[in-house]
Amino acid sequence: MDLATVETLLTTTRSVRQRLDLTRPVEPETIQTCLELAIQAPTGSNRQTYHFLVITDADKRTALARLYCKSFYEAWTPERKAATEQTDARNLASYFYLAEHLHEVPVHIIPCISGRLVGTELFQQATGYGGILPTTWSLMLALRAHGLGAAWTTVHLKYADEAAALLGIPGHITQVALLPVAYYLGDDFKPAKRVPARERTYWNGWQRTR
């Protein structure tokens, strides 16, 4: 195993919003290959409760983008936007760019799981989401390795019922995220600024550092 390549993949897989190629088609076979790789991620008791809804139809992408934007602009009030511009203008611009261009992104992927988790106990929620979150992150890694960018978004979930009606998603299925997917522009992704893991790592008891 080439450790340097693995470390590069793990440290440079970003949420890509502004650097998505909106004009280049994405081959269905490439998406399917990435999904086949992703499902090798851990899944509790090998239950494999995950599903992936891939939307390439332009009309459905546009309708889904409308739901996304409705939720997005309800959350990003002028006051919140103005305050964020003072502290995080760069990321803010990318959020708004994605909202404005989401309908143009050639592939939307909605990871889902069987079952409804609202109102269930923590154990059930952790078990349920544990069956899809590792797989979805593996999908983003696989996409990156194939030259595709994605952004992990949850904005549309405020209107998950409307999205389900639009896409024919059954009532017992829970949507978990929406990944806009396209080939990315450029390849100079860098590790993100993070609080060092050492500062958030505790050994043998809470807040007991080494």
Automatic annotation (TrEMBL):
GO terms for molecular function: oxidoreductase activity. CDD domains: Nitro_FMN_reductase (cd02062). This is Nitroreductase domain-containing protein. It comes from the Bacteria. Keywords: Oxidoreductase. Residues 12-183 form the Nitroreductase domain. Belongs to the nitroreductase family. The lineage of its organism: Bacteria, Pseudomonadati, Nitrospinota/Tectimicrobiota group, Candidatus Tectimicrobiota, Candidatus Entotheonellia. Pfam families: Nitroreductase (PF00881).
